[in-house]
Amino acid sequence: MLKRLKLIRHEGKELNEESSFYNVLYNILIDRWTKSCTPLHCLAHSLNPRYYCLEWLQGAPNGVPPHKDEEICIERNKCMRRYFSDSKERLMATKEFVRFSGAEDVFGQFECLQNRWELEPKEWWIMYGSSSPLLQNLALKLLSQPSSSSCCERNWSTYSFIHSMKRNKINPKRVEDLVFVHTNLCLLSRQSSKYNEGETRMWDIGGDRAEPFDGAGTLEVSSLSLDEPELEAVIFIDGQGNNEISTVQV
């Protein structure tokens, strides 16, 4: 409320007047929150033992444990139904979550409760999650994911290679379509048996790189995929003042 008041004063408006500046900022925040509030995020939030601790609940304004938050519960259950397609397996996982969130059995031991805050979530599940194998396996997959911008950087490098103002003037929609196709070709190629064999195995691990060379882009060997299954590219190597040209076919 105070931030809203400051923004309105910045515009020289009364409190009951509509503020376009505030509405824009508010919509940006809501969009960002909505993007980060997926069923998978809610499931990961529910499996983080720290969010059940008094230290976190008392330190956060209006802190509520995940199993008592209606929105998180709804989204978590969606993810559980999708992940555990077998009804019997899903029932077992649900019972394991009940024991975990309700601090029952081994999860109710003093040391286990105390270390919810002291240990990293992954370490805590390794130490105390053996009695709930389905939930432990799921928690380790979710809570072991590092925070990284590499996916965004890879998309932008692909975009930069496809679209260069010195090379072409294709419209943004066309570029988006090409990036979409390129990314999906990368994913499809991983299903091929040749992906793990030969000199070109795991070719897309290195990502894409666009480098200027007399106005043209240079595509890494590890990134040749735009015209799969047969793509020929010329790679320029600067060696002792001479340009050596080699052709690589994937």
UniProtKB/TrEMBL annotation:
The record places domain HAT C-terminal dimerisation at 107-185
Task: State the organism's lineage.
Answer: Eukaryota, Viridiplantae, Streptophyta, Embryophyta, Tracheophyta
The protein depicted here goes by the name Dimer_Tnp_hAT domain-containing protein
Q: Name the InterPro entries on file.
A: HATC_C_dom, RNaseH-like_sf
Which GO molecular function annotations are given, in alphabetical order?
protein dimerization activity
Q: Which organism is it from?
A: Senna tora
Q: Could you tell me which PANTHER family the record lists for this protein?
A: OS06G0658400 PROTEIN (PTHR32166:SF81), OSJNBA0013A04.12 PROTEIN (PTHR32166)
